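Escalation from tier 1.

The customer reports that the assembly of two entities below gives different structure tokens on two consecutive runs. Tier 1 could not reproduce it. I'm attaching the input and our single run for tier 2 to review.
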Amino acid sequence: MKHASIRYLTKEGFRNIWSNRLMSLASVSVLSACLVLLGCSFMLFANIDAVLGRIEAQNVIMVFAKDDATDAELDELKNAIDSTPNVAYSEFIPKEQAYQELLESLGEDASLLEGLGNDILPDAFRVTVSDMNQYDNTVEALSSLDNILRIRRNSDLATRLIGMRTSIVYIGAGIIIMLLFVALFIIANTVRITMFTRRLEISIMKAVGATNSFIRWPFMVEGILLGIISASLSVGLVFLIYRLAATHIQNLIGILGATLVPFGEYAVMLYLGFLAVGILTGFFGSLVSLGKYLREQGSVVKDE
Amino acid sequence: MIEFRNLTKIYPNGTKALKDVNIKIEKGEFVFIVGASGAGKSTLLKIMMREEVATSGSVIINNYNLNAIKKKDIPKFRRTMGIVFQDFRLIPNLSAYDNVAFAMRVIGAKEREVRKRVTHTLSLVGLSSKAKCLPAQLSGGEQQRVALARALVNNADLIIADEPTGNIDPEMSYEIVDLLNHLNANGKTIVMVTHEHELVRRFKHRVIVIKEGRVVADLNNPDELDESMLTECVETGVCKYFDMPNENPDIEEFLRSYGAYEDSGDAESKSSDDKETEAEKEPALTAEGGQAQ
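Tier 1 run:
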């Protein structure tokens, strides 16, 4: 295709959006609705994932050291723990600090501990694992280290968290893929209606000898532009909905000790995703619909 | 330029639209194709535009064999002709200028060339002053002239006009055919399908009459319309060769326009209203035509 033609046809794509503004508005609305649903679902899953992550982070393994372990042995133990596979990090909790934490957690019942010394608890290490799937193996590896009194583990919670996260990933992916198909289907149909309203133009193009690629190009440009407009609009809308939701449920989830993930962290990723979805559905929606229309029409000039 | 040889077209539902049609139209000719509704004119046009393919026989137009043409060559073939439709087919939200330019732009013409050609073509059809008007701001005749300009702008040598005067008043009809006549005088080949016998009668060009899918007459001048056809029309009261001019056909008036009743004087040059008046004045002729009523 000649350079001048590409310029003209691209300009036509822009012009068509304005000329057929009602249909353009319909396309943008439909695509935006799908993208907003997609975005809201995404943010919901991002929050669920963050909550799970937080719970996982709290699901630590407590490694208690033997009372008679020397400082040097404790240092050695810490190094050994840190170098165990799948250990993200470990924190040394001296017996005095553990006693203090116990007092705090008992609150008014702290008096029960009166008379006992602050060295009744053993020194301990709070170990956080990287991959919950490897939880049991990590516990096993830690058990074989020297100077360990015992290990406190919480395998049940770990197993449940792993299961929950897997389900969330599957459900999330399923919903998002379904929404993508809905978006593609709706866009293809909207483009088809647009084409039907513009069959006069297409028939004239055919009558004067325009090639199919020439007929297609402005529709493609239009589809892509509508995709970009919808993506930009949708990211703004998702932001507003998220902010609105945040003001209403922030207090509620605050009680549970959780916070909503900040939108800014995901904004760029979401916009790029929307652009990709918008452009691809716009492009392929136009391609599929126009291809079908041109195939059905064959060489027909007068479509009545 | 155009040659149909033993052309037959049968639609998938079994309708035989054209049967053994043989027509040859040379470069520079002006041909009227006439026939009643359902006679096969539209199918003939569709085959000429390569919307439909002949079931058998051969079609050669502008050196393209339309039976063997590749799909990708159809746009190229269509650029060798200009098509004018009865319903103008102008894009409502484009000005007259842009409607004409559209035909050039969609085949990839350069904007400088578009400006030059469109301006020239609009002046050719006498619409330079209305270049910026939208179709809705133009009369039917003017809209058809814009459509004609669009057919001409790519410099096609062959103009196919599908009842170009069907949607405009008689006065404008003459103007449009006059314009086509002028183009023909400048070397364009014109093929015009029409129902309007008065136009055929007035602009004395070759007439091809199609009836029930067959070419029943191919005359160099409408005045040569076969005497036997006229007789058949008078005897049966129905003329199968042309659509009648209105819902209550006056067969006598109709035949007069084709040269019957030559002794009745100057009727042919008058308007139909005048002719009606004259017919009332001449009871003998009415009585003769009475067979038809």
